[in-house]
Amino acid sequence: MTHKITIPCHTSKLKEVRDFVSTSIKPLFLSEQEQFLLVLAVDEICANRILHSNKNDTSRELEVEIASEDDAVVFYIKDQGDFFDLTITESPALPVLVKERRKGGLGLSLIKKIIDSVEVFKVENYTIHRLIKKSTVASQF
Amino acid sequence: MTISSNKENNLCVISIDGEIDASSSIDLDSKISESLKNGERKILVDCSNLKYISSAGLGVFMSYLEDFESQGIKIALYNMDDKVKSVFEILGLIDLISIVPSKEEAITLVS
Lengths: 141, 111
Description:
The complex is a heterodimer. Chain A has four helices and five strands. Chain A is α+β, with helices and mostly antiparallel strands. Chain A starts with a strand and ends in a 7-residue tail after the last strand. By secondary structure, chain B is α/β, with parallel strands linked by helices. Chain B has one domain (about 1-105): Transcription Regulator spoIIAA (2-Layer Sandwich). Chain B has four helices and five strands. A five-stranded mixed sheet of chain B has the order 1-2-3-4-5, sandwiched between helices. In chain B, helix 1 (about 25-35) runs parallel beside helix 2 (about 55-70). The chains are: A alpha+beta, B alpha/beta. The interface of A and B includes residues 36, 98 and 113 of A.
């Protein structure tokens, strides 16, 4: 079984994505903390894609799909924005970000600490992020 | 998300209600910036009703740490939900900004 939502590319729609993810993963009976962090990881990817690759352009769409595959919960985030492979990007060290008074640069670190595996690939005109979180209860999804 | 501030003696108390994400973090940024421009030196952030924070919100706090340090501004966050606090912990920000359980402890910390 899969769950899917499509939103216009605007950060004002992030709350809808968070609510969707939160509701969809409820059957997994994860702890509140685990649920919270999974919602956060998906939110981080979506915010990054909406802001940096789609420039808050509401004529574009972003799709989030959640599925269970083997022993994992898998999140697919699909959009037509510019391709950018965050998996080969180094997360800046915290002291550097602080010194430079940066507001950005933390999202990637968060994602890597929460998610077991992140893949980015291109299919036709779409950039697809595949986030994998291993879960012993994924089959209940 | 709504964010407000009020003055309690010589303390500036910022209260956050709702969720801070890439869309709403600008409001937090504006409020902290305004407090600094107003010359506030002791800032408390009431997180009782802060339900969620993403890296955008953390980034706002992070971007002011140097200013707090160089200008001798004391800031403490209090009454934060454990799930929200865990986001600060995951990134190590918990070591750079004071987060305490109660308002009383926050007042003691900045006094």
